[in-house]
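Action item from last week, closing it out:
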Amino acid sequence: MRTITATELARNLRQVLDQLVSDQEEIVVERNQQQVALILPVPGRQTALEAMADLYRTLPEDAAAGWLDESRRRGALSEEARDPWGTHGSGS
């Protein structure tokens, strides 16, 4: 945890915020040698794909097969997997 003065924060706000983002470390602000504020970094943002990327590593091995079977029973998926990079109508 880093400590800075209110004056330092006022003079260098952009640099302090940049460092907060890069270091992900809390910053205590002092005025007249008393702690007056605590600046916290926010958690990083992720897309849904990034958030789900490692999900398969935390699930039991049979979970994927169960999801696939249920999706097919509900009609959400066809019986055959298709290649999303296939040449259907690409014109090349």
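Closing note: The chain has two domains: 2-39, 45-77.
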